[in-house]
Amino acid sequence: MLRSARRAGAVAGLLALAVVTALGGAATAAPSGSKSPSQAMADAAKGSGGSGRLKVVAEGLDNPRGIGFGPDGALYVAESGSGGAGRCVAGPEGADVCFGRSGGVTRITKRSQQRVLSGLPSVAEEGGVAATGPVDLGFSGWTGYLLVGNPGGGTESREQFGPAARRFGKLLKVDLRGIRSVADFPRFEELNNPDKGAGVPPGEPGAIDSNPNGLLVRKGAQYVTDAGGNDLLKVDHKGRVSLVAVFPTQVVPAPPGIPGLPPELEAQAVPTTVVKGPDGAFYVGQLTGFPFPVGGASVFRVVPGHDPEVFAGGFTNIIDIAFDKRGRLYVLEIATGGLLNTPPDQLPAGRLVRVNRDGSQTTLASEGLNAPGGFVLGHGAAYITNNSILSDAGQVVKVAI
Fold first, then answer.
1. How far apart, in whole angstroms, are the C-alpha atoms of residue 362 and residue 264?
2. SS3 at position 16
3. Residue range 181-201: average pLDDT?
4. What is the CATH number for 136?
5. What are the C-alpha distances in Å from 352 to residues 44, 278, 301, 329, 340?
6. Tally of structural domains, the chain
7. With contact defined as beta carbons under 8 Å apart, do 98 and 86 qualify?
8. Residue 326 gets which letter from DSSP?
9. With contact defined as beta carbons under 8 Å apart, do 284 and 273 qualify?
């Protein structure tokens, strides 16, 4: 139990895991006729409205995560899907998670919302909650890149779902010639294991863990944060993967009320997002690993060849970051109060924060942000994926900044 909690597997899976069960063991079965915590969350989200500041621009999405503008000016959203009726295995909550080809990409304009890419791998429990599938995207001209998460561990975690799951944990290139695999991050983790299994006691299994989550597309190269591997990776124009940086663990107090834990725990970094800053350096936001300490997440500044340095701290469970044209940093938290502190029948409350020039922070949006999964800035607004761990209830909301 504790081992699975220490390792930061699929980011969305960890979210559901933290909400339902603190240590990663099997969730307690719901009494006959009652709703599971996951189903209660889904029902609550479908019946709730956002705040007056949030404008819904798309809805009915399946686990929407990363979002960006395409070369045509439209918004594109990576959807992790809702699993399916394929092969099932025991998931982190104890319930089965089942495979399907329900992942995809949706294009959004002022007049339409359309699935433009479908049939991509997805695993989720019944109801499509907390799916693993496509997590981020980006463009280089008219060529698109799509990042697909991995359901924990190494290559064996996707192989258990059969040949149709071969694209888990990979960077895909999408153009007029079709969809091609560019890089395989679980394979890189198995061959290199840059963080040396951080947080896993010697002799215990679980040192190999890859779950790519954040994508930055640059001309001639792509950069990926591996939330499971605790590192920032570069993919060159030939598809070769190399290490840019490894992010450190931190020692934090153990959460109260959980028997069997030592007084302090080693929390992993769990990097979830990467952008290029106005100074040319990379900036990486972290979710943090169990026990997901409130105020324990930071934004790191990374210069290749040097150790990461904390640029801004005091955040909780960062899921995405961005800079505006004035060089100001924006941070999106998926769970402002910490993943372990969310009632099991509720979605975690998130917020969008601007870091001002003097280091102070301004909250731009919070009410109505429920488990947000990503955002992009443009046209004087932030476009945020909302209800990002739910199927058919995901949204894109707009807030003026």
1. 32
2. helix
3. 90
4. 2.120.10.30
5. 22, 20, 20, 11, 20
6. 1
7. yes
8. T
9. yes
Sign of CA dihedral 155, 306, 146, 272: positive
- Cα dihedral 147→153→157→158 (10° resolution): 20
Q: How many other CB atoms are there within 10 angstroms of residue 55's CB atom?
A: 13
Q: Quick one: how many helices (H) and strands (E) in the chain?
A: 5, 27
Q: How confident is the model at residue 7 (pLDDT cuts 50, 70, 90)?
A: very low
Residue 286 near residue 270 (C-beta atoms within 8 A): yes
The residues near 335 (Cβ < 8 Å, ≥ 6 apart) are 15, 292, 316, 317, 341, 342, 348, 349, 350, 371
Domain residues for 284?
A: 2-26+35-400
Residue with tokens 């209830």: 393
**130 three-class SS:** coil
Among 4-13, 196-205, 356-365, 371-380, the range with the most confident prediction by mean pLDDT is 371-380
What tokens appear for 158 in the block? 């996707």
CB atoms within 10 A of CB 375: 28
Q: For residue range 34-68, list pLDDT tens digits in order.
A: 334 444 455 545 444 444 489 999 999 999 999 99
| Run of H or E including 192 | helix 185-192
b/e for 67-101, b at 16 or more Cβ within 10 A? Answer: bbbbeeeebbbbbbbbbbebbbeebbbbbebbbbb
Q: Which residue in 369, 361, 360 sits closest to 396, CA to CA?
A: 369
- Report residue 15 as tokens: 């979210």
Give the whole-angstrom CA distance, residue 179 versus residue 144.
9
